[in-house]
Amino acid sequence: MERLLTIPGVQHRTAEVIVAEIGLDMSQFASAAHLAGWAGLCPGNHESAGKRRSGKTRKGSTWLRTALIESGTAAGRTKATALGARYRRLMRHRGHEKAVVAVGRHILEISFHILATGPTYRELGPDYFTRVHAERTKRRCLRQLAQLGYQVALSTKEAA
After folding, report:
1. pLDDT at position 46, please?
2. Strand ranges (DSSP E) for 8-68?
3. Span 138-143, mean pLDDT?
4. Do the domain assignments include residue 153?
């Protein structure tokens, strides 16, 4: 349980709920995605004849869901964490509720890996997504500047 407390947004009560609801043996779940599906934190996929309908998450453990959504809200308020950055990135396009559920699911997936393999949580930093997807970030920024009427010429920064 001590290792779960290293995750941003997870406090003692949330760690207790996670351990009580899913247990310590992660061999019963094939992957973190299977655990998230079991917990009911996966978005639904109701599509018929090319029309996308409700993507509500399905019902799962109400105690676990409540604890993870509270943790997702708390993690979303943090400034210098990857989970806080994830919340802010999703919040712009999806809204508060969907962003909180997504961060709660991410916390559950992190918990799965911590309980299955044993390391403590390692903070990746608020710029993790930007570093991993640098080319995508560059294209998005250039597109936004073009929409504002700017013309930008890129050049690489020389090493000092």
Report:
1. 66
2. 47-48, 51-52
3. 91
4. no
